[in-house]
Automatic annotation (TrEMBL):
Pfam family, one: NUDIX
SUPFAM superfamilies linked: Nudix
The keyword Hydrolase appears for this protein: yes
PROSITE patterns reported for this sequence: NUDIX, NUDIX_BOX
Signal peptide residues on this chain, from the entry's feature table: none
Organism name: Helicovermis profundi
Span of domain Nudix hydrolase: 15-143
Protein's name in the database: Nudix hydrolase domain-containing protein
Keywords: Hydrolase
Source taxon at top rank: Bacteria
GO molecular function, one term: hydrolase activity
């Protein structure tokens, strides 16, 4: 069994809220698709809601963020990242699972207006990504 890689520093002064999430990566040539939000650059996906499966979460999050349907492929890896939200009392232990995805047709409904689908070189993506655990997975599985 592979060891789960961990990122960030777990500081004893914080209480961490465990947050499970599912993320999808699509690569095209030497580029990767990410979502750009007011907080930075991230893998497509997000937190699992109560009663939701990983697949349901990933499909919902990609539709909400960038308005695309997806096909979910192989499981890639699970990583953990400890994150403290600056200027806040909140800290998270983010348990993130990653899958390959294929972006499909557009969704016609309402999506998050401050999120944008971007295509970046893998090198540019890993330098811009907010979460180092996500950047690690983007780099590791690039073609």
């Amino acid at each position: 069994m592979n060891k789960i890689r961990s990122f960030g520093i777990k500081e004893n002064k914080y209480t961490y809220i465990e947050r499970k999430g599912v993320y999808g990566l699509e690569y095209k040539d030497d580029k990767v698709f990410l979502v750009k939000s007011p907080l930075g650059y991230f893998a497509l996906g997000g937190g699992i809601e109560p009663g939701e499966s990983e697949e349901e979460c990933l499909r919902r999050e990609v539709i909400e963020e960038v308005g695309k349907f997806i096909e979910i492929g192989e499981f890639l890896e699970e990583v953990i990242e400890y994150v403290h939200v600056k200027g806040s009392e909140k800290s998270y232990k983010k348990i993130m699972k990653f899958y390959r995805i294929d972006l499909k047709e557009n969704y016609d409904g309402k999506i998050e207006e401050d999120h944008e689908l971007v295509e970046l070189s893998v090198e540019d993506a890993i330098n811009k990504m907010f979460l180092k655990g996500q950047a690690y997975v983007v780099k590791k599985y690039a073609k």
